[in-house]
């Protein structure tokens, strides 16, 4: 591929990673290397059952736009890129894999036992060393990937995240594993049977195979070493994952390493006008770059050691999404970045933040004067979960830096992030319609900061608005550092009246009209298919989270992603295994999936429920997606909720799964209004009280 094609592939994959697919990519690349010797034979393997067909089909969609890369390279590169994009180390990645034609078209003997979640020490060691030639050190480092992502009840039958930062690679997994006594066993019921897993007080889980790392002296010593030193973990992980992805095929690969870093290297201070202050040593600098594909990429550097926050919003910025980078005051831990959940753009697993963070590699891509450097991508047009408008970046962006680390606060925490305090802000940059302007600092810094003018709005007013927002979102601290203010009741310290230009920005109707006017075109992920017109009819809305696409466009994307492919014999069916011998008797059942047809069936059945032609079965655990969608719509949900049920494959087991709190479900199903929430929660409580197949009746604590 040409350099441009690699750039384009990185950009495409980064959209998917931003959409929450990173952990899947990492797992898929590992499973591929482990079962297919890097030839992507895993695609054909029967033991891929815990991979979602939709996810696998998505890879085909990406591939369609990149004819010059093999599927095996694509899968492998996506995994390596995701590690780096989610805060991990860069991986030495090389291209040159050939695609396997069958499950056996691989240098690895696939009849040897594959790893299982129930494996103990011996099986784990045997799998990695016999099949893959990896050492104890490699094994423990690789298992650290479980810091990322989730177990999905509808995929593997296990449920929940391992860490509190499932989209940010850290060594938390090892820190948690140091204390296995903090975990108790729990049983998860699903269509795949009863699975035993471990869970801690915060709802974080471990598989039995993770726990095996605590049961062997050598393994446990490594767990402790990585828990104490994230840099060692990163270095060992990069080495082991890089070699894993070249299992049995290293000799045939290109000599050139393809960078897994998304960020543009920054070695010096950006040119004047982009830093505050503009002369002398900057407090912080922000550069923006329009990639011409609907994204704006911001790169932020600061000499502060607390946090850097980016916020964006149409108009008043209230309730918008914020991304935060921070480093501890001692600098220990290096650069870390995380996202912040605010109200409008919800960040939930599998959906997306308005922001997608791209960490710069701490040592190589950071200007010498900077303590925190990172990049973040923002879609120009996004769709919020509230159905309100996204923004086209003609609104406001703030960049705020502070000398203080964020503090833990469960309310808005996502990916381990916390509460930021307005009082600690050292400087804010606001980018309005008139361009970027530095405007304000906190009490101590304010006097030395100049006040600019933003897009014709008096800077003072704009600053007041920004501060008001930060007071709401970040909970103001008034009584000195280290001391929390009493809870404020609603009204933030804001000017009583906002300037008129800003007032109407926060009006939903106005936003909607702007939205309609501003949308330039859809974000297209993957190939465009002309099959849109023949795509199945749908009375459900599209529930894309960060992309804006008309219904027919979305349908065409869906159709190209999940429509007929020619793998199987029957026309229109994705019949992957029909012609292949089964690898193991137990899991050797062939299956075929036709997503489009399934969705039509789903909608038809839902309609039958809604029309009163069929009624719900008493046994919740047998409910399919249509039954769940009907139940949700009857109890506070709407069409958007039903579409979520459809797209996320929510079946009865999900409603009952103890690892999903009712609050999680309310959130995932986009039940927003207070009244609706009460209705839904009441119905869910009754449903869970009634239980189904012995499911645990008590809610575990939320993990964030
Ligand atoms: C003994 C070896 C391993 C076993 C038995 C195992 C098992 C599992 C299981 C059961 C899941 C949950 C799947 C789901 O429900 O979605 C999972 C997820 C995951 N695994 Fe492993 N795993 C192993 C090793 C690894 C390795 C070596 C890596 C990468 C280096 C890895 C990366 C991941 C990731 C990132 C996820 C999260 C996927 C997501 O969120 O969709 N695993 N693994």
Class inferred from helices and paired strands? alpha+beta
**Averaged pLDDT, please?**
61
**List of distinct ligands in this structure:** protoporphyrin IX containing FE
User: Per the principal axes of the C-alpha atoms, what is the gross shape?
Assistant: globular
Descriptive report:
The protein has five domains: 1-108 and 247-262, Peroxidase, domain 1; 112-237, Peroxidase, domain 2 (Orthogonal Bundle); 275-479 and 489-506, Immunoglobulin-like; 521-562, no CATH class; 594-690, DNA polymerase, domain 1 (Orthogonal Bundle). 33% of the residues lie in helices and 14% in strands. The protein has 20 helices and 20 strands. It has helices at residues 3-36, 53-64, 71-85, 121-132, 136-143, 172-177, 208-211, 217-228, 230-244, 443-446, 459-474, 500-503, 508-518, 551-562, 595-610, 625-634, 639-648, 652-656, 662-668, 674-690; strands at 93-94, 150-151, 160-161, 184-190, 193-199, 205-206, 257-258, 275-276, 284-290, 295-302, 307-313, 322-326, 336-340, 355-359, 372-379, 396-402, 425-432, 435-440, 574-575, 592-593. The strands form six sheets. The protein has a six-stranded antiparallel sheet. A five-stranded antiparallel sheet has the order 8-9-10-15-14. Strand 2 (150-151) and strand 3 (160-161) form a beta hairpin. The C terminus is likely disordered. Bound molecules: protoporphyrin IX containing FE. Protoporphyrin IX containing FE is lined by residues 23-24, 26-27, 30, 50, 115-117, 119, 124, 142-143, 145-146, 148-152, 155-156, 158, 207, 209, 241.
């Amino acid at each position: 591929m040409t350099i441009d094609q690699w750039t384009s592939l990185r950009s495409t994959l980064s959209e998917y990673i931003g959409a929450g697919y990173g952990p899947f990519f990492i797992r898929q690349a590992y499973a591929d290397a482990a079962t297919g010797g890097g030839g992507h034979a895993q695609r054909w393997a029967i033991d891929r059952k815990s991979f979602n067909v939709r996810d696998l089909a998505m890879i085909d969609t990406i591939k369609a736009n990149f004819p010059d890369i093999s599927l095996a390279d694509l899968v492998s590169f996506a995994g390596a890129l995701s590690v780096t994009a989610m805060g991990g180390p860069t991986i030495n990645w090389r291209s040159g894999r050939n695609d396997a034609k069958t499950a056996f078209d691989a240098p690895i003997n696939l009849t040897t036992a594959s790893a299982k979640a129930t494996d103990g020490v011996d099986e784990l060691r045997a799998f990695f060393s016999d099949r893959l030639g990896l050492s104890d050190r490699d094994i423990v480092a690789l298992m650290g990937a479980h810091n990322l992502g989730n177990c999905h009840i509808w995929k593997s039958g296990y449920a929940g995240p391992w860490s509190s930062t499932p989209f940010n690679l850290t060594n938390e997994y090892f820190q948690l594993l140091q204390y296995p006594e903090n975990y108790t066993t729990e049983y998860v019921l699903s269509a795949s049977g009863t699975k035993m897993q471990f869970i801690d007080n915060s709802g974080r889980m471990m598989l039995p195979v993770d726990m095996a790392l605590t049961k062997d002296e050598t393994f446990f010593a490594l767990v402790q070493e990585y828990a104490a030193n994230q840099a060692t973990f990163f270095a060992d992980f990069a080495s082991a994952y890089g070699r894993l992805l070249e299992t049995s095929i290293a000799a045939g690969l290109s000599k050139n390493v393809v960078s897994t870093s998304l960020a543009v290297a920054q070695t010096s201070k950006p040119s004047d006008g982009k830093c505050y202050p503009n002369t002398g040593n900057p407090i912080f600098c922000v550069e923006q770059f329009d990639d011409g594909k609907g994204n704006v990429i911001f790169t932020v550097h600061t000499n502060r050691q607390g946090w850097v926050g980016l916020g964006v919003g149409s108009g008043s910025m209230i309730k918008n999404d914020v991304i935060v980078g921070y480093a501890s005051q001692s600098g220990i831990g290096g650069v870390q970045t995380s996202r912040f959940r605010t109200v409008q753009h919800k960040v939930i697993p599998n959906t997306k933040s308005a922001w997608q963070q791209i960490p710069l590699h701490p040592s190589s891509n950071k200007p010498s004067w900077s303590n925190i450097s990172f990049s973040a991508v923002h879609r120009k047009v996004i769709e919020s979960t509230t159905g309100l408008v996204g923004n086209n970046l003609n609104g406001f962006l703030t960049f705020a830096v502070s000398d203080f680390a964020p503090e833990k606060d469960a309310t808005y925490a996502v990916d381990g992030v916390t509460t930021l305090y307005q009082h600690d802000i050292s400087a804010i940059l606001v980018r309005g319609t008139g361009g970027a302007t530095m405007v304000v600092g906190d009490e101590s810094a304010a006097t030395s900061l100049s006040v600019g003018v933003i897009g014709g709005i008096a800077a003072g007013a704009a600053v007041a608005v920004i501060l008001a927002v930060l007071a709401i979102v970040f909970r103001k601290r008034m009584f000195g550092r280290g001391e929390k203010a009493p809870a404020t009741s609603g009204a933030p310290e804001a000017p009583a009246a906002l300037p008129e230009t800003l007032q109407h920005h926060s009006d939903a109707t106005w936003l909607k009209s702007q939205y309609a006017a501003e949308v330039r075109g859809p974000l297209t992920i993957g190939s465009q298919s002309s099959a849109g017109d023949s795509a199945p009819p749908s009375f459900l809305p599209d529930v894309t989270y960060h992309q804006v696409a008309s219904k027919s466009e979305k349908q065409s994307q869906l159709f190209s992603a999940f429509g007929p492919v020619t793998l199987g014999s029957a026309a229109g069916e994705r019949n992957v295994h029909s012609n292949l011998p089964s690898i193991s008797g137990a899991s050797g059942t062939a299956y075929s999936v036709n997503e489009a047809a399934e969705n039509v069936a789903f909608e038809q059945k839902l309609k039958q429920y809604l029309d009163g032609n069929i009624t719900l079965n008493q046994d919740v655990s047998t409910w399919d997606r249509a039954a769940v969608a009907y139940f949700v719509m009857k109890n506070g949900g709407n069409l958007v909720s039903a579409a979520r049920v459809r797209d996320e494959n929510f079946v009865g087991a999900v409603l009952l799964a103890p690892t999903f709190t009712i609050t999680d479900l309310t959130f995932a199903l986009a039940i927003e209004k207070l009244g609706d929430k009460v209705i839904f929660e009441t119905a869910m409580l009754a449903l869970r009280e009634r239980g189904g197949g012995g499911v645990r009746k008590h809610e575990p604590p939320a993990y964030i």
